[in-house]
Amino acid sequence: MKEGSTPVRRQYLKIKRQYPQAIVFFRLGDFYETFDEDAKLASRELEIVLTSRGMGKGHRVPMAGIPYHALDNYLARLISRGYKVAICEQVTKPGETKGLVQREVVRLVTPGTVVEPSLLDSKSNNYLVSLVWGEEGVGIAYVDITTSEFATAQLPPHRLIPELERLKPSEVITAESAELPDLGLEALLTRLDDYWFETEVARQTILEHFGVATLDGYGCSHLPLAVSAAGAIIHYIQETQKGVLGQLNRLITYSTDAFMALDVQTQRNLELFSSSRSGTASGSLLSIIDLTRTAMGGRLLRRWLGQPLLDIKELSKRQDAIAWFAENTLPRHQVISLLGDVADIERLINRIKSGIAVPRELIALRRSLEVVPELQKALAPISWLKDALKACPEVVDLISQAIVESPGTLDQGGVIKQGFSEELDNLRLSSKNARQYLADLERKEREKTGIKSLKVGFNKVFGYYIEVSKPNLPQVPEDYIRKQTLVGGERFFTPELKEYESLILNAQDRTTELEGQLFRRVCQQVGAESERIKASAGALADIDAFSGLAEVAVRYSYIRPTLTTDNAIDISDGRHPVVERTLADGSFVPNDSLLSNDDAQLIVLTGPNMSGKSTYLRQVALIVLLAQIGGFVPAAAATIGLVDRIFTRIGAREDLPAGQSTFMVEMVETANILNNATPRSLIILDEIGRGTSTYDGLSIARAVAEYIHSYPKLGAKTLFATHYHELVELANFLPRVKNFNIAVAEDKGEVIFLYKIVPGGVDKSYGIHVAKLAGLPRSVVHRAQEVLTELEDGSQQ
Hints:
Radius of gyration: 34 Å
Strand content: 15-25%
CATH class of the domain at 562-764: Alpha Beta
Structural class: alpha/beta
Strand order of the largest sheet: 13-23-24-25-21-26-27
């Protein structure tokens, strides 16, 4: 530090040393300022002016600032690019204490700890994840501080990547010394001192946070890695977030064994959350089935889709709720309409309890809670859902009595209703009377002096004043005291004006202070009811998801599948839920599917390109998946034996790992399937062996099929689409292999795709016909036909 630095400079540097990895937003009056390298970075990333400021004798430093009221917009840009931002506020007012205004960092905003609504996707969780590696496996904990969801688990290593893909964390914390496998997490990583991940330290952190003597009640006392991950995440939030920890009042220990496993490839290949073409949600399964009206319901449905269940009892409960909504049209429409008036209660109550809510958010909460009694009436016949809703009339009444209907900000004032506080009402009346006095004073002084242009005004620097233009200065009375000289006149005050100025300003200051106190008190009282409000939020999310899935079922003619623990999947007239929505009504060709570990375990599917093989494969997988989130399915009938995993190997990927060929990636993914599938798995294979020579590819494809069929610990239900027509021979000596093909019709040399799955194999690919449809030059198509004829004649000889 250079000699002669100003007190503000020394204060800033002391704070910056505590947060070297963050951009410090340092509050100076109505601006957040950045300095030094932070200023250069902020100027570049936020496209704001880089200037400089004197911070001592001969000492200027780079500086860039933003208005305090524009914080959210600029914060969003930095956080979305992976930066951390320390928000340093003035915690005392100028003049309250001797010397420098006190400042401290009130919050460290990181990608995983964002709470500003404008920075969040309303229908997605924003997860902070903690990872710990050990001999027993991997410990993982995650938290969404905006909803208070907090969970931990201890996983076998092979379950980690699917779990990370499900959570899609915004930030990951791990120990400084941890050696991570290549998980593609580097851009998300925050490393903490190893100390906080030590099991006993983490255990003590959890015990102190929850105020308990043992972890037995949380189900993780025997899972040291889960404890380490959860304890470290609590410490990180303690360090970065002031006032948030109180919301984390529940820790869930979960097991991935309770859910169907969906690896990264399967989520992409089935386009569960985003379309492979656009990379956006449009065209995904979620985009079709998400008719939720609330942010909470949308987040819940997304979680369901990422965690299909293996518990028939829980699935039946979901099915019953969806069936009730589907069968009862009027209540369904009433509920859906009422849900449209419900805000994001989960996140609202957390902001209110944390003390960072704005007045309009209390109004949003009140209006949302006012819907609950109406929903309870509509849901009277389905008692377990109705009873889960908790009406909060005391909260509704409190907010109604305290907060005006359309509040501005606390800075603007006028937030607290008249009649809520006698002291506030008196202050407002006093201020109003004083302002009326000043209006009367202007009229009285004009009459007294004869100066018609005289006016009483106010500015922040000089306070209240009487302004007289230069030509009228000779008429100014002797009791006027000069305050300021202007180009066109003078400003004066009188002892009487000064007295009323003091009354008004003191009343305004006290009014602002009291309104803030009253608002915070209301927030505390509402926050005290957070458990009841959160219970209602959870029930509203369930109701939203159920009614939305019922609306999907009715609108698109889905049926309730029968769920079993048997080893068979039997679907009549199944349809692809996404593709059918892109076609004219009724034009999608439905197909049957029968897979059984005892009989039709492995289906070899042949047929030409563009005939619908890939659509059919995905269709079966999506129907199974929809059934295992408790939803209805696009079919005439369906009996689904629950599967523990869906594996897919479909097509070539565009985002190949560095240094790996298409064929290598295909083999790695196939190896993953063969090494991890079980008899209860569903395997979808599309064109194994295409990326190498014909004989190599055929050999690998056949060996894979034989292994799936015959290896004692595998035997998974499999759909195997292929252009290797030789594979149809497998059915001759492997008893559980069945051949099917996509039917086509030939008419005068033209090929017509019928999109119907029929028994038997085919030995024609119709590749030249597809080339013609693709628009290849006529001469190329003609020559290809000649070459094909020559090759076929040669093979027959």
